[in-house]
Design a protein that fits this description.
The protein has 412 residues and is mostly helical. It has one domain (14-401): Up-down Bundle (Growth Hormone, Chain: A), CATH 1.20.1250. Helices cover 78% and strands 0% of the residues. The protein contains 19 helices and no strands. Helix 13 runs antiparallel to helix 19 (379-401). The model has no long low-confidence stretch (mean pLDDT 84).
Length: 412
């Protein structure tokens, strides 16, 4: 069967797409699996759960604050140097965590360094890399496919980390992650070949032609972008609460600790289906409406799981459903930002929205740990997450049903 001209156009840029996908898979898979080490690390280092989750909160804050800066640097200096710097920071952060002797080492390693790494070679820059060289007609599907491959990392890293941790201690599990993270370096180098490809124009998008400051001002004055950004806060709160606290919740309920790793791996596996579906759907229906429905569905699944005592079966079913509703956000948000503002400043503007996401992530990580220490359970934490998710989803759907004029530069 002869491939269509559109599909044939992907062949020359396939190495870039594959490298960015593998980079994203490892970066996100390792990050999503750090929660496996919370309980053994806090016992070994004589810390409170809230101390470790404070480091995860700092990681998410650093990721969010530095994401728009990394995006602007990538536009100015190129993606390759920014992503390689992030890969090096990832390796150093995991080394610092593996050799930590107290809170300071956990904060620097799992917090600051990994937060910097995620800003420089995580989902924001990976999605900007793959959006540039593909035709607009295929962009949503390609974003979904790359997001799908990026979801496989947890299926690899979580079982490896858990097995090493159970057999040799939590530090061995983190050293296993260090070995995996070394693969990010050559992937960042290969994905950086996108710097040779000119930025295609985005007709009718004013912000695509302006400066970084003008584009940022246009974004922060555009209603649909602000609503998407606020809903993104709740997305971060829910997801990081789960990646940080689900293994601890499972152990707290007396279930097999290995079930936590299996649940994270299940989330990673069903991420693939969800990313492919929402990437495909985003090319056919309004992305903002799909995004809001995703948030509402995710909140209902959270309520159903945490509202009843968990079992092995219900946990794996919950992980499958959450996985389907997890990374599907990535192609929808990336596609929305491109529709609103074009490709030139996509990484920076998406980083502005992601700052809100990471504020929510920090609250989900630290707030969940604080509430557990204060009340001895996660009940109030998940109830707050569910309520905020439904409100944010409804606002996002209502925003998607409106058709406001496109954003304009502040100087226009």
């Amino acid at each position: 069967m002869t491939p269509t001209p559109l599909l044939s156009s992907l062949r020359p840029v396939a190495p870039i797409l594959i490298a960015a996908s593998v980079m994203l898979s490892l970066v996100m898979g390792l990050r999503q699996s750090i929660g496996l080490f919370v309980q053994p690390a806090v016992r070994d280092l004589s810390m409170a759960v809230a101390d470790f989750t404070l480091a995860i909160a700092v990681q998410n804050l650093a990721w969010g604050v530095l994401q728009p800066i990394a995006g602007a640097w990538a536009t100015r200096y190129g993606f390759r140097p920014v992503m390689i710097g992030g890969a090096i920071a990832y390796v150093l952060g995991l080394l610092a965590l593996a050799t930590a002797t107290g809170f300071a080492g956990v904060l620097i390693g799992a917090g600051l360094l990994i937060g910097l790494a995620l800003a420089c070679c995580g989902s924001g820059l990976a999605m900007a890399v793959v959006a540039r060289p593909v035709p607009a007609a295929l962009r949503s599907n390609v974003l979904g496919m790359v997001s799908a491959v990026g979801s496989l990392g947890a299926m690899i890293s979580a079982p490896i980390g858990q097995a090493l941790s159970l057999d040799f201690g939590w530090r061995a599990g983190v050293f296993g992650f260090v070995a995996i993270s070394l693969v990010i370096l050559p992937c960042a180098w290969m994905a950086g070949r996108v710097d040779r490809i000119p930025i295609p124009p985005s007709p009718g998008v004013a912000a695509d032609a302006g400066t970084a400051r003008e584009a940022a001002r246009a974004a922060m004055r555009y209603g649909p972008f602000l609503i998407m950004t606020l809903a993104y806060f709740v997305c971060g709160l829910q997801l990081v609460f789960l990646t940080t606290h689900l293994p601890s919740y499972i152990a707290f309920c007396g279930l097999d600790p290995m079930l936590g790793a299996q649940a994270l791996a299940m989330i990673g596996g069903f991420n693939v289906l969800g990313s492919l579906f929402f990437g495909w759907a985003g090319g056919r229906w309004p992305k903002a409406v799909l995004l809001g429905l995703l948030y509402i569905s995710r909140s209902l699944v959270l309520a159903a799981y945490f509202g009843e005592p968990p079992s092995s079966g219900s946990t794996l079913l919950f992980a499958a459903l959450m996985g389907f509703l997890w990374m599907g956000v990535a192609p929808l948000v990336s596609g929305l930002v491109i529709e609103m503002f074009g490709l030139r400043w996509q990484a920076m503007i998406q980083g502005l929205a992601f700052t809100s996401h990471q504020l929510g992530s920090s609250l989900g990580a630290f707030g969940g740990g604080w509430m557990f220490d204060a009340f001895g359970n996660y009940q109030l934490a998940w109830q707050i997450g569910v309520g905020m998710g439904i409100v944010g989803g409804v606002l996002q759907v209502l925003s998607g049903l409106r058709k406001p004029p496109p954003p304009q530069l502040a100087t226009a």
